[in-house]
Amino acid sequence: MPEPFVVQPRAGMSAAAVEPPTAAGGGEPSAGRRMRHPALEPFERYLDDPSVTDIFINSGQGLFVDRGEGSRRAPEWRATEEDVRDLAVSLIAVGGRHLDDAAPAVDVRLEGGVRVHAVLPPVSPDGTVISIRVPRIERPRLADLEARGAFDTRGRAALEDLVRRRENVLVTGAAGAGKTTLLAALLASADPSERIVTVEDVAELGIDHPHHVRLEARQPNLEGTGGIALDRLVREALRMRPDRLVVGECRGAEVRELLSALNTGHDGGAGTLHANGLHDVPARLEALGALAGLDDRALARQVVSAIGVVLHVQRTPDGCRRWAAAGRPVLDDAGRLAIEEASWAA
Question: Which of 238, 261, 278, 345 could form a disulfide with 326, with the two C-beta atoms 3.0–4.6 Å apart?
Fold first, then answer.
């Protein structure tokens, strides 16, 4: 049985003295290991574990850890709702923002790329909820993903060909399926002489490339000013002469700017999109297009012209993140968007 692990926020947030777990066979720790701000000390044993990708705290009900095989309760965690609320406020403060009744749901990125999202009651009726995304130090290339079983040798060759031909790519999949990882590996294969500019809501793309410029959106302050949204950042990025323009995740009106850019001579670009399956992509894009003032047919023509290939990734029951399908955007008989599945997907 593990020793009790009691969170003590009012005593410097220090965790119980427990030897942190190590990965089987050794290996590099996650990015969180390099961060030792007092607010993160209750999570040291999980941040030190290189297999951990996500940490979830559901008020006083418990802490859950995802090591690539789904979230599992940590039986050693002990904390009250008051503890968890104090912890959430401290974590958000580390990211330079305030979490309180006036701003009950906040998302921040901490040094090293650790991403923290926190929600307070009554928005979360059962108590304070904290979600922590832990990035990995490594910046995998396509060869690394092939070795992990994400695709076979034929699939790797097809992906490398997409980069070489400067196809505009949309990577889709569910949350945690590996969209950002695959996109980063694709971009790492780009010619070193190319200038890659990435635009993200919260900067997560780590690319093994010598010329990578990152832009990150900024949320408005308590007075409602100072915010810089993704759609504006896309326009700013176009003034930076990118050889490849990338939008980390299309969630709203920025889809219009991305499609417009990729339709005006900017090839080799990319974006990611949440979708449960390859053939769910048209509906997701139509929904985003509506937010940007595009009707279904206008959106379809924009996508068919701008996006060369859609790559869909999924997470298997055993936790492996795989490239599952590929397709090309096409117009159906009614002039709406459809996906024509490709036979060369891994």
Answer: 345
